[in-house]
Amino acid sequence: MNTENEFINKKKVTPNNLLRALYDREINGNKTRMHFVKTTYQILNPNCTVINVEKPPCFLRKFTPDGRHFIAFSQDQLYIEVYAYLGCSMAAKLLKNYEGNCIGQNNDGDVVRKRIFESLFQLKFRILVAAEGEQLNRECSLFSDDSSYAILGSVGPIAHNVVLDYDDIFTNNESVSPNLLLPLENYTIHLINIKKGAVSHRLHFKADKISLSHNQGVYLLKDVLAILSVQHQIIHVYNLTQNRFCLLRKIGRFCFENDFAFISSVHTDMIAEDYKAHNEIFINGLKNKLMVFLYKKAEHESKQNGSPYPLRRFYQFYDQFMSLRMWKMQLLDVDNILIRYASEDVVTAKIQEPSTQASFFMIYNMTMATVNLFRQLKI
Length: 379
Hints:
The chain is an alpha+beta fold and about 375 residues long. The chain has eleven helices and 18 strands. The strands form five sheets. Strands 2-3-4-6 form a four-stranded antiparallel beta sheet.
């Protein structure tokens, strides 16, 4: 019994109060696991809800990572509005005369509903972003880690008086065939300086197809931005530095910056003015890396098992691998990128239910230009 009492007396009991919870969250930065966060929320929770809040005529989007600013799109989707978040304490005066936990449900609290947004948010900048003939995509917005920059995308139709050449549509032998479900459009990627309220840089992609919605075709990791051109099957990789985008590499037809100079030294006709890249009979750089990886893997398995079956399987599905096209991508780190391949019918939206089709995932090292993994998965 004495031993049991001693154990109870020695057992440390953590006080469950608001002051202690906030102290652990702010001071003990290493204790940010999920159960610590939940403990704070169990003590500090919202006690009032305001519904039917009147807001400016715009599309509210998201906070910056540091929570200091709020981004909204204008109704015509040409401008962005940058609001400074003033903190929930700024609405205390509006709510001091209300005791209910829900304001605006029974047409009460008109003053609160009309003024609470302007109490919490202050408009700092209204920036014209979209280029002529384009509109911003509300589902495309990325932020730098320091919350100083926002990356937005706009899209617009190709003018009727513009006649595209065949070479503009098919820039290499991996380019896909556009159709009514996947029309070619003009795209612009904008770099916005949030603190200065100005557009710092723009990237233009003419007669292309980039999936802007939900950031499927653009990905930002630290200061590296990757943009996937579905039409031309090229991944453009940029470095965000000094208020602008600096091109690091283009992955697709070539993998290294000096590939063109090296290959043209052998195929001298490549430097001719009438040379057509879409007529090339050799495999483009990225697809060649994939096929070499699959062949070496099959060759290794054949030697290991003492059977030619893996190599026979490789040749059996050779045409299927060659017909694959890049559909989506995501940066894993500043060196490795995850690429999702699918058939051209899936990539060009000819198949309405792409989830029923097989997808292939490849991990590609951009720095070393090597394929580290290639697997077939069904999502």
